């Protein structure tokens, strides 16, 4: 008999208990949830940052072009209107009569000028803060037009550096010329050819129509609708788009107060000041859209402050959903304030009338 007795070998465990599996699964789920939350937050932050960057770049580009144009503006004290700004009235249907080809009346669209200064109004020309960034210039913004000595592009004789009419305005229109195409907001820049040799371009040039911005050809389709025609001042063509998703555009004009070194605000001086003209013809008023003489201001500015508001990609998506009835529970300006960028710039006007 063997005096040495050894216990049988112990068999090691080769698996996990049910409790251990449950704990491991719970930890995995928690970690996966944390990773998803982190990735979602990173994606959201990136989307907001990139959307804001694109909108900011659009605003800066538009301000660069406008500043260059305004700094080459031509002003004269000869009774003609060399610069004209109009806070456009509320739009409906296809915009102003004889004006834009816009679609301004979706089911839930940009509010009008009712209740100026209130949170959901599109008009606040005199914000309590006094800051340009807090201004709102109406449903269709400011329609700005002026005579400018645009730089010579040397691509044709029609683009020689010579005085010509230039205009800026917001239009809400289809992005492409197809039935049912999506309607988007955009800032358009129109430029009328300074002169031309052949007809009808010759009759629709700045030289032929004249250097008074109250001329009918600049204020209706009577001036033609081809590129470079005077009629594009009132109704710009699609290819004249300067910035997309621009939902507000405006300008302030100033002149110095003699002997003080201070600047006097010429336009807009309040909610009732809807028009401005650089002319010695006091009482001159635009015809389309019309502005009563009591709502006009006159003078020759030396400083301009420029304003533009551009939706981010997310803002454009939400506004489009709101205007087509796919988004409810939020107001137009609530979305716009949360998902847009504002660009401003102050420039000196070098013209000396």
Query: Per the principal axes of the C-alpha atoms, what is the gross shape?
Result: elongated
Count, helices? 4
The total count of strands amounts to 13
Question: How widely separated are the two ends?
Answer: 130 Å
What percent of residues adopt helix (DSSP H or I)?
10-25%
Order of helices and strands: HEEEEEEHEEEEEEHHE
Number of separate domains: 1
Mean pLDDT: 88
The fraction of residues assigned to DSSP E strands is: 15-25%
Largest sheet: 7 strands, mixed
Poorly predicted tracts of residues: none
- Based on CA atoms alone, the radius of gyration comes out at 30 Å
Biggest sheet strand order reads 7-6-5-4-1-10-11
Structural class: alpha+beta
Please name the defining characteristics of this protein:
single chain, 4-stranded antiparallel β-sheet, 353 residues, 7-stranded mixed β-sheet, alpha+beta
């Amino acid at each position: 008999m063997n005096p040495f007795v050894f216990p049988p070998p112990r068999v090691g465990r080769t698996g996990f208990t049910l409790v251990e599996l449950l704990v491991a699964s719970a930890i995995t789920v928690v970690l996966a949830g944390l990773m998803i939350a982190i990735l979602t937050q990173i994606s959201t932050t990136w989307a907001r940052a990139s959307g804001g960057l694109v909108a900011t770049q659009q605003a800066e580009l538009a301000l660069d072009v406008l500043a260059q144009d305004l700094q080459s503006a031509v002003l004269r004290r000869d009774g003609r209107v060399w610069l004209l700004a109009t806070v456009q009235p509320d739009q409906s249907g296809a915009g102003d009569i004889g004006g834009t080809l816009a679609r301004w009346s979706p089911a839930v669209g940009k509010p009008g000028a009712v209740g100026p200064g209130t949170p959901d109004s599109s008009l606040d020309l005199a914000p309590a803060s006094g800051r340009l960034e807090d201004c709102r210039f109406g449903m269709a913004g400011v329609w700005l037009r002026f005579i400018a000595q645009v730089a010579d592009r040397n691509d044709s004789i029609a683009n020689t550096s010579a005085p010509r009419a230039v205009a800026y305005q917001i239009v809400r229109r289809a992005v492409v010329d197809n039935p049912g195409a999506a309607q988007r907001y955009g800032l358009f820049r129109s430029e009328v050819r300074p002169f031309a040799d052949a007809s009808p371009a010759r009759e629709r040039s700045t030289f032929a129509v004249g250097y008074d911005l109250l001329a009918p050809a600049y204020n209706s389709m009577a001036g033609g609708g081809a590129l470079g025609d005077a009629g594009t001042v009132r109704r710009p063509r699609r290819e004249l788009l300067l910035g997309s998703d621009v939902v507000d555009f405006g300008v302030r004009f100033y002149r110095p107060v003699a002997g003080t070194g201070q600047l006097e605000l010429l336009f807009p001086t309040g909610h009732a000041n809807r028009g401005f003209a650089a002319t010695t013809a006091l009482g001159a008023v635009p015809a389309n859209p019309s502005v009563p003489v009591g709502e006009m201001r006159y003078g020759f500015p030396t400083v301009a402050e420029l304003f533009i508001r551009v939706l981010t990609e997310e803002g454009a998506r939400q506004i489009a959903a709101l205007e087509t009835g796919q988004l409810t529970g939020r107001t137009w300006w609530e979305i716009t304030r949360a998902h847009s960028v504002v660009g401003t710039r102050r420039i000196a006007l070098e013209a000396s009338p």
